[in-house]
Predict the 3D structure of the following.
Amino acid sequence: NAGVTQTPKFQVLKTGQSMTLQCAQDMNHNSMYWYRQDPGMGLRLIYYSASEGTTDKGEVPNGYNVSRLNKREFSLRLESAAPSQTSVYFCASSDLGLAGAGPYNEQFFGPGTRLTVL
Amino acid sequence: DQQVKQNSPSLSVQEGRISILNCDYTNSMFDYFLWYKKYPAEGPTFLISISSIKDKNEDGRFTVFLNKSAKHLSLHIVPSQPGDSAVYFCAANGISNFGNEKLTFGTGTRLTIIP
């Protein structure tokens, strides 16, 4: 099993350009997440999808959109990139779902995408 | 409003000694806590967890302690090894406004083990 995969690994954009970060998991997990990691800020949740067909905002959703394409895939789109979106982006998946729906499980992370916006 | 705090950005420990990483939280509704380890250019990986109904969980060299009254948890690594050099994130599980479970992460502590 590949676990959680992300593409691309690196990307440089100019201000105003758009792009989509791709994420796929092969663990049959219900829930998927997008985080960004910035120095001194830890991991901050951008958007998540508790189950196929649902998406919800996290702590820092502004400037981003997401699509849960199917159970395996969860993409993150930057419509008009800004320098403030320079960061490392991590996708994760887990069986965490609706409260009380099942046992607690940890989140499994992809290797990350390092994005620079000039 | 940082609900999960790791006040030490970095920590250096001699190989073979004990490493103690600390984490504080403010939300008493958090019901499950996790520690993640992250190497450079890789995603975080799960290390150990503890339910809020327990005060200690041990897994090999790693032990997590939870003090609910103080809203404090700590990760003990003994003996510390060079491969333990990484960034460690504390995370707390809670319920979002939409009724879904989600993790809130601390800012991380960079642990360096000195040979």
Q: What stands out?
A: Chain A touches chain B at residues 4, 31, 33, 35, 40-45, 48, 50, 56, 58, 90, 92, 96-99, 104, 106-112 (CB under 8 Å). The mean pLDDT of chain A is 90. The first strand of chain A starts at residue 4 and ends at 7.
